[in-house]
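Lab notebook, bench 4. The sequencing result for the construct came back, and we need a structural model before the next group meeting so we can plan mutations. Quick request posted to the team channel:

Model the 3D structure of this chain.
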Amino acid sequence: MLLAWKSTPHSLGAWISDDGRALRTELDRMLDELATRIVDEVLAR
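Done. Here's the predicted structure in token form:
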């Protein structure tokens, strides 16, 4: 689900201009970190 959200254009990306690229990159990094944490938690069980 997360990968599908990241691979398709979404409303968040629509209002972020070129000036907001740093913000979008930060959001992507946070989402990747969160996804990694979730996977690690699931695998640790």
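The mean pLDDT is 72.
Will bring this to the meeting.
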